[in-house]
Amino acid sequence: MQKSNDQKSYFLRYLSLAPVLAVISISVAFSTWAFFNYFLPDLLFHPMP
């Protein structure tokens, strides 16, 4: 049973690493930007009538 506890602690330590947090935050920011541009596109490509 001790191995399972060690694996959980190593997994939590892995999730708290800076590169992992950076990739997650960049992907969330890009996804937000992509959805925003999908629903409210730039007026350069979709001019108002």
UniProtKB/TrEMBL annotation:
Its main location: membrane. Keywords: Membrane, Thylakoid, Transmembrane, Transmembrane helix. The chain crosses the membrane at residues 12-40. The keyword Cell membrane does not apply. Signal peptide: none annotated. It is a single-pass membrane protein. It comes from the Bacteria. Gene3D superfamilies: Single helix bin. The keyword Membrane applies. It is found in: Cellular thylakoid membrane. Belongs to the PsaJ family. This is PsaJ protein. It comes from Nostoc cf. edaphicum LEGE 07299. The lineage of its organism: Bacteria, Bacillati, Cyanobacteriota, Cyanophyceae, Nostocales.
